[in-house]
Design goal:
The protein has 301 residues and is α/β, with parallel strands linked by helices. It has 10 helices and 10 strands. A 6-stranded mixed sheet has the order 2-1-3-4-5-6, with helices on both faces. A 4-stranded antiparallel sheet has the order 7-8-10-9.
């Protein structure tokens, strides 16, 4: 509501469309200029200098993902935040895919807004937005006149969905217990230990999958960034990705094929709107799952 012609926003080609399209619509309505940050289609890397190159004194907001849900790339958010704040702009971080695989520290990331979804970390399907109350006080959403104007209630839809809150709490408690460290003084410390164990577990499985995929010259892997989540996007030469996914499904292996709403990223790496086959790992994944996946791909090839 405070944007005006001459202002600028920055969005990333790496992002899920949910952190691109709403900002483009808002910019169009306000007459604001949109600047794009590209990423290296060969390596999947998005570097802070590329974001900095798009910043000006008219930049109002930068929207960028903490982890690509398509290829797993984790941009250097803390470095980006420093450059964004030097220009006096706000940083809106899509943490939906990040929060499922990484311990979240908002202060360390430097995000002004951090959005995530509990369904990605074993919880119910709802949305979460984290921001400082003082910052939220500066935002005036359109709402019904009788509804309260306090923060955060002014952004919520009437009576809270208590069952979703309860489910989210249960998911966080579950994750906090994964490390088995009951001696940690707080739940947050237990979460920190759990996520450290999860990263070690999931990355070990990811590396095993990468070794197996590398044995097949017909398979191209697009998840190549140095820092990334345990997410692998690949295609098979001569077989459409939807066919590969369906064949794996017949073997009780769930590896869907799509652009997964990261439309700009899928187009940028040359996969168009069709995308590729995505393998995602979770705390409950194990080496047996990896073996079944690799054996299934061998049978298809």
């Amino acid at each position: 509501k405070t944007w005006q012609p001459g202002d600028e926003i920055v969005v990333s080609r790496l992002d899920h469309d949910a952190n691109i399209r709403p900002w483009l619509y808002a910019a169009q309505s306000a007459g604001v200029t949109v600047r794009w940050v590209e990423f290296d289609s060969a390596t999947g890397e998005l570097i802070a200098a590329d974001v900095e190159a798009q910043l000006t004194d008219r930049t109002r907001l930068v929207a960028i993902t903490a982890a690509s849900n398509l290829i797993g790339t984790r941009p250097p958010i803390a470095q980006i935040a420093e450059k964004v704040h030097e220009r006096g702009a706000l940083l809106y971080v899509d943490g939906v895919h990040y929060a499922a695989h990484s311990f979240v520290d908002i202060d360390e990331l430097g995000a002004d807004f951090f959005a995530c979804a509990p369904y990605k970390f074993c919880g119910p399907h709802c949305g979460v937005l984290i921001a400082a109350p003082a910052l939220l006080e500066t935002l005036e959403p359109d709402k019904l006149l009788p509804s309260v104007n306090t923060v955060p209630e002014r952004f919520e839809l009437g009576t809270p969905a208590y069952e979703l809150m309860a489910g989210t709490t249960a998911a966080v408690d579950f994750l906090a217990g994964l490390s088995g460290d009951s001696d940690a003084p707080t739940r947050r410390e237990r979460l920190r230990h759990s996520f450290a164990a999860m990263v070690e577990h999931e990355d070990g499985l990811r590396r095993a999958i990468e070794v197996g995929l590398a044995e097949h010259p017909r398979i191209t892997v697009y998840s190549r960034a140095k820092l990334r989540t345990p997410t692998l996007l690949f295609t098979v030469d001569g077989i459409e990705s939807v066919t590969v996914s369906a064949r794996l499904g017949e073997l009780n292996i769930n590896a869907p094929a799509s652009n997964f709403y990261a439309l700009e990223a899928s187009r940028h790496i040359g996969l168009g709107d069709a995308g590729g086959v995505r393998v995602g790992l979770a705390p409950y994944s194990n080496m047996s799952d990896v073996d079944r996946l690799l054996e299934g791909l061998r049978s298809i090839l």
